[in-house]
Amino acid sequence: MATFLYKLGRLAFRRRHFVALIWVALLTLAGVGAASAPPAGNSSFSIPGTEAQKAFDLLEQRFPGASADGATARVVFKAPSGEKMTDADNKATVQKTVDELADGSEVASVADPYTGNAVSKDGTIAYASVKYDVSGMELEESTKDALEDAAQQARDAGLTVEVGGDALQAVPETGATEVIGIAVAAVVLVITFGSLVAAGLPLLTALIGVGIGVSSITALASALELGSTTSILAMMIGLAVGIDYALFIVSRYRAELAEGREREEAAGRAVGTAGSAVVFAGLTVVIALVGLAVVNIPMLTKMGVAAAGTVAIAVLIALTMIPALLGYAGRRVKPAGAKGRLLGRSRKGEPKPDRPAGQPKANVGTRWASFVVRRPLAVLLLGVIGLGAAAVPAASLELGLPDDGSQPTSTTQRRAYDLLSEGFGPGFNGPLMVVVDAKGSDAPKDAFDDVAGEIKGLDGVVAVTPPAPNKGGDTATITVIPDSKPSSVQTEDLVHAIRDAGGDVEAKTGAETLVTGSTAMNIDVSEKLNDALVPYLVLVVGLAFLLLIVVFRSILVPLKAALGFLLSVMAALGAVVAVFQWGWLSGLMGVEETGPVMSMMPIFMVGVVFGLAMDYEVFLVTRMREAFVHGEKPHQAVVTGFKHGARVVTAAAVIMMAVFAGFIGSSESMVKMIGFGLAIAVFFDAFVVRMAIVPAVLALLGKKAWWLPKWLDRALPNVDVEGEGLRTAAERGSGPDEDRELVRA
After folding, report:
1. Fewer Cβ atoms within 10 A, N terminus or C terminus of the chain?
2. How far is Cα 314 from Cα 375, in angstroms, rounded to an integer?
3. Per-residue pLDDT tens over the stretch 501-529
4. CB atoms within 10 A of CB 478
5. Average pLDDT for the chain
6. How far is CA 148 from the centre of its chain?
7. Residue 602, Cβ density class (10 Å: 0-12 exposed, 13-18 middle, ≥19 buried)
């Protein structure tokens, strides 16, 4: 591995014009494709294997033309103070609005509030339900404009009018904080390298990689039905890993220059050593993201594959474009220790006045590692107890999917949600649709009535509509209004109670009862994600564990890496619960409405955080492994690994935290929560697990940390992440000319 990447790095350095041209051409091609492609919509929830999805499919068959998955809108009207919606003028305004909405080309039906019993008991609030022929992601802009115009005309007539439902769902915005995250990354890079040129290389290559990845996703969004959040998450992860991977290679390049190597040779060795770590770190991220497919939720699978593709591009750019740009930069990228005067640092070879010449001062990483190896047990206990305390809130984790009630109060969807709750009760925002399939029943009508009667007798039910059969008379729908809000535990219990009652009716009549609707679908998704979490964890951690055995040629080091990851992800989940569910620091994070944590959060965090955690594990511990392989004692190898890697890993973690935190400003609650969760997870994993717990455990284990059974050592392929093959060549006395022949071989 190291030898191949060494050759690749030198080749890219020499053929930099060709390499740069290829990547610019790919960026241009992806950009043109994105510009000419139709915009991405909101991905539909198709959840194979759930009862809610089965009911949706049944409705498509038995109620043809009903557009069971079509977009919906609720236009909510509130009368001025002292008036009622049944007053003649207000009634005329609503009727005019209903007539205008019914004229839309994509409108399937509009329910008049006054004929559909859609006026509140106190007469102050009413609503009109609009059903469309197509899903929200397929609605034309002219249809959305017509909906907004009709609402505005009613407002002009003196009514308070808000629009809920999925018809007006917009593409989420990330806001200015994303740019702030990139700016923070730039500042950290400048501080790390002390050079604008060296700092600019990781930023430039990361932006090119993200540009190619996100543009490709945008170009394929319509054909593959990719949701609008897919490109945002790919950008989030692609930026973070793209900057980090380039940072590690540039840092190693400067270290090789400091050892006196020529620039082309230094580029080859940087790619051969740090590049090997980049490849395996990238592989762990890709495995974690692609592994999301085991959940069998199409939207989540597409998000994972798209983000994995962006990570793969980041790895390829780091291995090829970074050495090419280093060739262009020439002497403007200085060796490590020769940082120039940008930050007021001394030049290489100029001793500090407060210490004798020839006595280099130990850096912070060296001093910290020396402290940890002297007090490993105390550091280990402190780190584990601290993460355990942070993880305590995770015991109260409640899962759900966001609805209009989690939207900011500035949106019309949220205001419509609040008006409906005020006029009709909180459960009115999450009606349950019960589908009764009586095709196998001898008395379908009796079966419909039996189901309706059973539901009316359940706790937590406010209203049950009469069964509405189809033309064939073998299937009927019943709408159930709970007395609790859609995301509550009480509503979830009611869904299960209806399904249990339906089972009793089926045993008597042969009619099958299914519960669907957006609320039931969200509940089914949450349960499906919970059921898939353990198999997913076993798959991803198992595959990565095997990969790390190959990289580190050890059993205990990968095991320690996996256990440390579990600590950091549990602590991060605890922080997410504290902020988004309990409301701690919610104002600072822009969380306007607390509630259940998004159902996808645990499994998504497991996937992404595991991949990123292994990044730091690979980058930091490979330097320790390299020192140990080259003859250093275990404790000294830990210190050496920190001497060369701690500063860079710290910079990489701060950059990744800044990039993720930049997405906290998103208008999409899911993106906001994921941005915060990943940022805090990186903090816990990089600074507590990798910087404290890992060296403490390695110090306690000593040589046992690198133990590997002889039979397994013989069976495993030698990937040479430490670059031992390159060092061997140097020790044989090969000079630059012989190295050039090696590259051509």
Report:
1. C
2. 38
3. 888 888 888 889 999 888 888 888 888 88
4. 21
5. 82
6. 32
7. buried
